[in-house]
Design brief:
Blueprint lengths: L9 E5 L2 H15 L7 E5 L2 H6 L3 H13 L1 E4 L7 H6 L9 H9 L2 E6 L16 E5 L9 E5 L3 E8 L5 E9 L3 E5 L4 H18 L2 E6 L7 H24 L3 E5 H10 L4 E5 L1 H15 L5 E6 L5 E5 L5 H8 L9 H18 L2 H19 L2 E2 L1 H4 L8 E2 L2 H15 L1
Parallel strand pairs: 1-2, 1-3, 3-14, 5-12, 10-11, 10-12, 15-16
Antiparallel strand pairs: 4-5, 4-13, 6-9, 7-8, 13-14
The structure holds NADP nicotinamide-adenine-dinucleotide phosphate and magnesium ion.
């Protein structure tokens, strides 16, 4: 069978540890035999980030903007232990944060749903995609602790010299203070990415905040979303039969639990941090969560939501067999290939991505899975596979579908 051809390359961002090992296996076993795979390759493995003083991360993000579709392997975010382990000259920033700030994008995380792994919430039948605003609020807060009485004020001095002042609190004794901010441009980009992604995936969009209590700050988020929606997106939503809904964050939480899924839930930074872990856990497992970064100008970066699975990597280095689940990484590739196929009008490439997803889910539904899924599965007849056996089982089913 001739290989499926591509026209525009994917931007390939290689990564670290166990996911790097799986990355190569997925390419060798499931992609290269069937696709004339074109990629522009960037090695975001920590060793090469150090060698290039992290320039490779910046270059890869610019390439993602240039070519439009990227696929990324999980990468180590250095901490003190990693600085020592990899003899780093600096504690390089999280590659995801660097890429996100260059692409100015929003991350959408969605679970991969498969028969036999039931979500903890009985009503959920379709994925719930969480969109987290990734700038500002408490993540850029300025904080103070006082051990004595005094006055805390909020002072704004405009560039043209106007001064505005509000008293935050008159302390009678010790206490704590926090100043947070956000910018219209960041909120607008976030809103645009959310509306565009809803249109892309034909799903309703929900946004929740606390505007009844935060009458200026949260209300401003609500206004920006509403204004943009009315002005620029409403007609397209109507045409597709999807809707945008703003509601209070606590009401959103209650509705999410009672829903059957199948929508995008846009969250402010902190809400998204907390709720994405809640949703991921309730759907089953972090190893079954995919993530796509979408920029307001319409470029995409696909990845798995989990990390480099360090513990398994150390087992692998000792020569032990590993049971790491490659599904989210496979779906990062299929997401990117399907998007490339769609943008370039390559039906065969899109169909290949769909078939590979189908083969992967079929493998699990027929009872072949790694340990992390086996402990959650309700299937009667389960065969635990290591990573290699799982990939081989997927390949067998893929060949039947091709
Ligand atoms: P992790 O790699 O997500 O793994 C945490 C634990 O979750 C694993 O030890 C494993 O549990 C389980 N797990 C995660 N993915 C799995 C999979 N595919 N198959 C089976 N089990 C899986 O998180 P971490 O260990 O906290 O972080 C390791 C490194 O990843 C860190 O250096 C961090 O900076 C980086 N990280 C990168 C990204 C990214 O690039 N997007 C995201 C998060 C973390 P058991 O050990 O119980 O089997
Ligand atoms: Mg978190």
């Amino acid at each position: 069978m001739p290989k499926i051809t591509m026209t525009t390359p994917l931007v390939e961002m290689d990564g670290d540890e166990m996911t790097r090992i799986m990355w190569q296996k997925i390419k060798d076993e499931l992609l290269l035999p069937y696709i004339d795979l074109k990629t522009v390759y960037y090695d975001l493995g920590l060793k090469y980030r150090e060698e290039t003083k992290d320039q490779v991360t910046i270059d890869s993000a610019n390439a993602a903007k240039q070519y439009g579709v990227a696929v990324k392997c999980a990468t180590i975010t250095p901490n003190a232990a990693r600085v020592e382990e990899y003899h780093l000259s600096e504690m390089w920033k999280s590659p995801n944060a660097t890429i996100r700030s260059i692409m100015d994008g929003t991350v959408f995380r969605a679970p991969i749903i498969v028969k036999g792994i039931a979500p903890y919430v009985r009503t959920w039948q379709k994925p719930i995609t969480i969109a987290r605003h990734a700038y500002g609020d408490i993540y850029k807060a300025v904080e103070m602790v006082t051990d004595k009485p005094g006055k805390c004020e909020l002072v704004f001095t405009s560039e043209d010299g106007e001064v505005r002042k509000e008293t935050v609190h008159e302390f009678k004794g010790p206490g704590i203070m926090q100043g947070v901010h956000n910018t219209d441009s960041s909120i607008e980009s976030f809103a645009r990415s959310c509306f565009s992604y809803a249109i892309e995936t034909r799903q309703d969009l929900w946004f929740g905040a606390k505007d009844t209590i935060s009458k200026k700050y949260d209300h401003h988020f609500k206004d920006i979303f509403n204004d943009l929606f009315e002005k620029e997106y409403k007609a397209r939503f109507d045409a597709l039969g999807i809707r945008y809904m703003y509601t209070l964050i606590d009401d959103a939480v209650a509705r999410v639990i009672r829903s059957e899924g199948g929508f995008i839930w846009a969250c402010k930074n902190y809400d998204g941090d907390v709720m994405s872990d809640m949703v991921a856990t309730a759907f089953g497992s972090l190893s079954m969560m995919t993530s796509v970064l979408m920029s307001p100008d319409g470029s995409f970066e696909f990845e798995a939501a989990h990390g480099t699975v360090q513990r398994h990597y150390y087992e692998h280095l000792k020569g032990h067999e590993t049971f790491t689940n490659p599904i989210a990484t496979i779906f990062a590739w299929t997401g990117a290939l399907k998007k490339r196929g769609e943008l370039d009008g390559l039906g065969e490439l899109t169909a290949f991505g769909e078939k590979l997803e189908k083969a992967t889910l079929q493998t699990v539904e027929e009872g072949y899975m790694t340990k992390d899924l086996a402990i959650m599965s309700s299937l009667p007849d389960i065969h635990i596979t290591n990573t290699d056996q799982f990939l081989a089982a997927v390949k067998e089913r893929l060949e039947k579908l091709l």
